Amino acid sequence: MGTVENTEAINNRQQVNFGDLEVENKNGYCDLHPDSKLVDGGPPWLLFQDGSDRAACNPFQIWRCSRSDCIRCYERSMFGYFNMDHARGSSVQPNALPQQRCYRHHQLSFDPFMFIGKIGTNRQFRCPVRGCENLGPEVAEHVADIDQAGEEPSVRPKRFSNETEKKAFELAVFHEFIKAAKLLVDWAENAKPNHPDIRCSLNGQEYWFELGRITNETLAQKIKGPWPDDPRPFSFSQEEPLVRIINKKSASNYDTNGHPVDLVLHFDQQRPDQTMLGRCIQKHAAAFHQLRHGGPFSRIWIYDAWSKSVLWSCSS
User: I want to staple 115 with a disulfide (CB 3.0 to 4.6 A). Which of 11, 28, 44, 111 is the partner?
Assistant: First the structure.
């Protein structure tokens, strides 16, 4: 049988209004782009229709993803993370799935939705009430803020006219990856054919890394020369190139002189949709399992050159 609050407790909850809540979510991040901070989305009033000819105007502090092409917002009392267009008069599009809440604050008139905060270099759900240490699930590891990482990869993606350009690009991507993954690499070099792409010294031991570019082949064929300085958002399949590169690497054999090798799959042509990526990984869990346990790789990493962050990793 559930606990019934007495009248005094209910009145106390109602007396603590929205404006009295001290909040931390001014340091929050977008749930789709954990490298992008939330910014004040004001004004803090939303108009709600109740199905009749009446409407209620209520105070809500809205925070928006700082990316101009993203419509994700956060509000702590009623909606959590949700979609809302930038145009004036746009309506809230609530999430269909349940979201994380904190249930520790019985003095409040609502149970606040958790937001994604910065814990070290990681991103993790946390309570928006100042001083509350309640944490939820971890969202991403080793994420650099977009204002620190820059708006585009410093290693410019391109089509390669020769093997020398390809090797230089691979080595540059590898150096960015090890910074994001916080790997202690003493030196690194391009490897010869029949070996993985990169040979290096990791923690004083010889180690190898094979790189795999997650890119849509049709898209790549349409792009000639260097990637534009300011590529605009567009739609492309992430699932097909991810599955294709997994199948390709699963069928590969490498000479590593008996030393371990990791696989680094990386995005560099367009920012990945992390929600869709998570779904793809779950959908093709069997293929990843085969790659981990039936292939030569000790660990598998997915790296995003745009946010300079490791999006996913696993070990065999």
Answer: 28
**28 three-class SS:** coil
Q: Which of 78-87, 225-234, 282-291 has the lowest mean pLDDT?
A: 225-234
CA 309 – CA 115 distance, rounded (Å) = 20
Q: Tokens 């419509």 — which residue? A: 71
Helices 239-250 and 285-294: crossing angle in degrees, nearest 10, is: 20
Contact 192, 199 (CB under 8 A): no
| Residue 85: burial class (beta carbons within 10 Å; 0-12, 13-18, 19+) | exposed
153-201 tens-digit pLDDT: 555 555 566 787 788 889 889 999 999 999 999 999 999 889 999 999 9
* SS3 of residue 25 by DSSP: helix
Closest to 13 measured CA to CA, from 79, 140, 97, 109: 109
Token readout for 211 is: 């790189």
